[in-house]
Amino acid sequence: MRKHLNRWSILTLVFALLLTVPLWVLVSFMFEPTNDNWTHLADTLLPEYIINSLWLMLGVTIGTLLLGVPTAWVISQYRFVGKSVLHWALLLPMAMPAYIIAYTYTGLLEFEGPVQTALRTVFDTQTVNLWFPEVRSLGGAIVMFSLVLYPYVYLLARTSFANQSQSVMQASRTLGAGPYKTFFKVALPIARPAIIAGLTLALMETLADFGTVQYFGVPTFTTGIYRTWSGFGDTTTAAQLSILLLLFVVALMMIEVWSRKQAKYFTGNAQPLNQVLPKLKGKHALAAFSLCLLPIVFGFILPALQLLDWSINVASTALNAEFITLVWNTFSLAFITALVTVSIALLFLYIKRLHNNPIIDQSVRIAGLGYAIPGTVIAVAVIIPFAWFDNTLDSWAREHLDISTGLLLSGTLFALVFAYCFRFLSVALQSIQSGLSQIKPSMDESAKTLGANHWTILKRIHIPLLSSSLVTAFLLVFVEVLKELPTTLILRPFNFNTLAVRAYEMAADERLADAGLPALLIVVTGLIPVIILSKMIGKRHA
Fold this sequence. Notes:
mainly alpha, MetI-like fold, 24 helices, globular
């Protein structure tokens, strides 16, 4: 038994280490000496990267809190007309990647767009030009991120507010506290850990973004890493910039952990709120409805309508064989990646279930670190060891066999799928673990008494019972791959495009209408996890 346990422990550890090799290689560049490119960046652009990143984080913090917390409070504490739709519709902006909403608002608000054109028909042209804000700016990027990332704060804050004991709220009102004082003095402190957790996720997404800041011309770490790698061909400096970006991510993770440790609030047994929630009427109901509707309109409805308009206008020319190939590339890549990732996650978790071993636990935890790491960083981390392997093997083959092996790993779909697996393994692990934890160990023991081995139990019992969790994990990874831009942009093979890359290329060439169709398909597919999440919330509150 001990030998069997060690064998599985070693197998899991080896798989986890293989997945995280790029990360350890990247960390090793901390000890590499800096070169002239790094010195140039440190003297010129690096301070700008840091300052812009800090301003983005501050702005997105304010924006997501202002949009996420009040809507969560209103939805969880009151009844009003339209709440049954708004409570899940507030999640719709999650289907809209930040770089896509950036394209749509640029089209809406640029000089020749419909908004400025309409304003110039009413007001003097010079007056409009003087006071109309520039959307492609740092402030514009903050607004774009806030509109699509507030659901992280809304979702966790809403859950926290809904689970708070109603007796605590009633005691606060009995002591003379009004709605505002109850919110700020009682409910908000209790929900603070959940709010900070949602905010941390939003800020990590902000730091990881490439498409929005690149398109808006805001220099950040992700744009600097890409330019250093593609422009200078300097992997050392790109890796060192990536490490600096990782420090920001680690700091956010530490803040989130600290906030949970600092939580000192306990609410006892929560009572069901749906039976005792006060009902809003008149102007109060209208105010609550408007408060919840505005983020949906600006975060999803308007951008979606703009994408639909662009898509209809170009459909006659854009729907051709090249676009079909583009869709095939994207969906087949997402399908393969999701299948591989879910298989690895299931293997890891099943071995962890079989053997309660700290080595396995730590290995699975390490393998799930990728989701916290920006896609640009992962792409650089993958290309360094893969390129080293290809060059080393090619040099040896030329010297000893007089042949060239070419690119076997770097610049191939294998590198792309590998990077995706590491990036999104955590998504699959969490989805499958939630289902696996509901399967009682007694079922395994009963199957063993009937002579079934571990693989028979997995195939005949666990996989059928996990079908919904496996499908959910598959769809979540599928959609994440579909939306991913920086990893694809750096690691894709030559002449291989995806929907995300095509939308980015068209927008970069100022052909926003041509970016509409691929962007719309990404958004429509991105609705899948939102629908799944909405159904889960509906069951929980049914």
